[in-house]
Amino acid sequence: MNFVTMQNRVKYTLGMEENVWNNEVQLIKDWLNEGIVQILTRTRPYTRQIQLQLSGGIAIHDMSNAILALVDVQGPNGDFLKRYTREDITKRQDSGASGFAYEEPLLWVSPIPDVDTFITAFGIFRPTALNADTDDPSAASLGGLNPEFHPAIVMYALWKGGEYVQHEGSGQGQAYRIQYEGQDGSEGEIARIKRVLSKRVTPAYARRRNLESNVGSLSDSGSYIGVNG
Asked: What is the DSSP string of the chain?
């Protein structure tokens, strides 16, 4: 769904105006772009690999605001680091234990490297705002949101627009808010996106049962060899 299609859905649904003296389309554009950032932050559907440079001897790193969220961080040896709160990671830095914390835009990594060090992280980049009518949030630089997630962008804009125009049919946008984020977090577009993404994640390796540890060794034929009493 391209930018102008999303704009029209919001404009015609809410009856918003596009006149020289009262052009509300710019508000719709802003809400659609806000919606993309909101969805990326809350559902993390387009995680990318990021190379980070840590300055030696520095405990807290000020990250670029181009990064919306960090999902995982690997230490210098390639091991994935466990995430901690800001308070806990400070204690771990004092003791030299491993881990990381991220509170936009600040990053703590432990142990603190003695020299400048590159590490790998996985996170969400801030997208370029939609501008042209043909811009599509499926494009990597514009959000990387799959087409099946585009209705959530429109729903966010309908929520904000409904509040703005005091849309009676939706309870001043509240019906759209519920469709967007759900009544209790278990439904709505945000929950639907999370469910879809969880099904697309590579499943964890299923451990096979160790028969020998349970029933003893097996013969070549597969028959159980018991213990002589």
From this structure: --HHHHHHHHHHHHT--B-SSSB-HHHHHHHHHHHHHHHHHHH--S-EEEEEEEPTT-SEEE--TTEEEEEEEB-TTSPBPPB--HHHHHHHHHHT--EEEEETTEEEEESPPSS-EEEEEEEEEPPPPP-STT--TTSGGGT---GGGHHHHHHHHHHHHHHHHT-GGGTTTHHHHHHHH-SSSSSHHHHHHHHHHHHHSPPPPPPPP-HHHHH--B-TT--B-----
